[in-house]
Amino acid sequence: MLELDRHYTTEYKFITGIDEAGRGPLAGPLVVAAVTISADFEIEGLNDSKKLSDKKRRKLYQQIKDEVIDFEIVTIFREEIDEINILQATMKGMGLACEGLQMQGVILVDGNRLPEILAERGAEAIVKGDQKVSAIAAASILAKVYRDDIMIELDKTYPEYGFCHNKGYGTKQHLQAIEKHGITPHHRRSYAPVAQQTLYFER
Predict the structure, then answer these.
(1) CA-CA distance, 58 to 198, in Å (whole number)?
(2) Is 30 helix (H, G, I), strand (E, B) or coil?
(3) Following DSSP, what letter does each residue of 135-177 receive, concatenated?
(4) SS3 of 22, please?
(5) Torsional sign, CA 86, 109, 69, 45
(6) 84 within some domain
(7) How far is residue 8 from each of residues 11, 101, 124, 164, measured CA to CA in Å?
(8) Is residue 122 part of a domain?
(9) In the Cβ-directed half-sphere of 75, how many Cα atoms lie within 13 Å?
(10) 194 located within any domain
(11) Residue 37 belongs to some domain of the structure
């Protein structure tokens, strides 16, 4: 059991965890996942997605989808991120992911901020919740693997940027590719150094 699991599983029959992947990258969407688990839910090796290997995450990804009571995955694309900013995009995604669930329990959100719509329903924000609560850890894995697969697909169209490796984050290779080739339709215009770039990728 993760650190806070016992606290919630002794008090609630169902727990809904929410987490996101992709707040920091220069390119690609934001993905938010919500899962509802029962108090007796347990998958061996479940942890914060960032602490797991890709192989382990993918194995757990399928187990989670098979064994949770309900799950929802929401994608917020770069156009909306640029329009409303990444914080508001995250809050919107969390609200939509939770709304998409047919079965909900006590709502626990990774981080230190809550969307207003979830705060009104008594949701709790838990800093580093993906390391403390199984429901949030499960959501973090769904969001991470789902987003990784989007970036791997984008890499087929834009191999110059190394999306299959960097997943849109600002690695040295990625930054050099932006300087050389410009930006793609999937680069976040509101993020530096993308904001300063006037050259657009053309095949």
Answers:
(1) 37
(2) strand
(3) HHHHHHHHHHHHHHHHHHHHHHH-GGGTHHHHTT---HHHHHH
(4) coil
(5) positive
(6) yes
(7) 5, 19, 11, 37
(8) yes
(9) 13
(10) no
(11) yes
Q: How many CB atoms lie within 10 A of CB 201?
A: 18
Question: What SS3 class is residue 61?
Answer: helix
**Whole-prediction pTM value?**
0.95
Instruction: Give pLDDT tens digits for 99-153.
Output: 999 999 999 999 999 999 999 999 999 999 999 999 999 999 999 999 999 999 9
Placement of tokens 């382990």 in the chain? 56
For the chain, what is the domain count?
1
- Pairing mode, strands 14-21 and 30-38: antiparallel
Q: Which residues pair with 34 in a beta bridge?
A: 18, 72
Between the alpha carbon of residue 156 and those of residues 58, 90, 150, 151, 160, the distances in Å are: 20, 27, 10, 9, 9
Amino acid found at 88: Q
